[in-house]
Design a protein that fits this description.
GO terms for molecular function: ABC-type transporter activity. This protein has 241 residues and is mainly alpha-helical. The protein has one domain. 78% of the residues lie in helices and 0% in strands.
């Protein structure tokens, strides 16, 4: 399992795709936080990162599909897929190894953004006037969101050998998982079960954790959501095997 994890991680880091993808993510998030008039914290005038944490999920809808689209699609395109699944290693171990490699890449993308927290803390009056608990909760929420999206990405990559198709499928599923349930709950026919439908979506649980309160129900939701898509991946690979 570790060999698959190491191979997956280093194969991505050895290509320019990793650096371009993470670089674009950091560039866009930095521009949104500091320069764009409607989202700049300098124009907003308050020492907080709530705007940043509300924008990053939308960037994740493109960053994470780009990270995960090659997980199984690349294996099938290069003809190494059959070799991989016939080795003396369980399918679950292959899936989990690729999933953890994707999570490490998500961490690599998030760690540099801690500079934003440091900068906002220094710019606050007085210095350090920032809700650290809320920021920590938001980062935990972002990681859990990235874990959920990564599970979707692994699943999408297992569906096809075309990386572009895997990217599109993953982006669409991530967008629906994050926003689709909220929009669906607003339909008049579903007003009686609006709360139930909203709770099925990721946005509700991500927003809850971003307030700085770690509710076990939210943690359980993200764990279950990720495990469910990894299970779907196993069913697809097992059927093709």
């Amino acid at each position: 399992m570790y060999a698959v994890f190491k191979r997956e991680l280093f194969s991505f880091l050895s290509s320019m795709v990793a650096y371009i993808t993470i670089g674009i993510f950091l560039l866009v998030s930095g521009l949104l936080l500091w320069f764009f008039p409607d989202t700049s914290v300098l124009d907003y005038g308050y020492a907080e990162l709530s705007g940043f944490f509300s924008l990053v999920p939308y960037l994740f809808m493109f960053l994470i599909p780009a990270i995960t689209m090659r997980s199984f699609a690349e294996e099938r395109r290069e003809g190494t897929y059959e070799l991989l699944i016939t080795r003396p290693i369980r399918i679950w171990q292959i899936i989990v190894a690729k999933y953890f490699a994707s999570l490490v890449l998500v961490l690599f993308a998030l760690i540099p953004t801690v500079v934003y927290y440091y900068s906002i803390s220094k710019l606050g009056f007085p210095q350090g006037n920032i809700d650290t608990g809320s920021v920590i909760g938001s980062y935990i929420g972002l990681f859990l969101l990235g874990a959920a999206f990564a599970a979707i990405g692994i699943f999408s990559s297992a569906l096809t050998k075309n990386q572009v198709i895997a990217f599109v499928i993953c982006a669409a599923l991530c967008a629906f998982s994050f926003l689709g349930f909220d929009y669906t709950s607003q339909i008049a026919a579903f007003q009686s079960v609006e709360t139930t439908i909203t709770n099925l979506g990721i946005n509700q649980h991500y927003t809850s954790i971003s307030r700085g309160v770690l509710d076990t129900r939210d943690l359980l939701y993200f764990i279950t959501f990720s495990a469910l898509f990894l299970l779907f991946t196993k069913l697809i690979i097992g059927g093709k095997r």
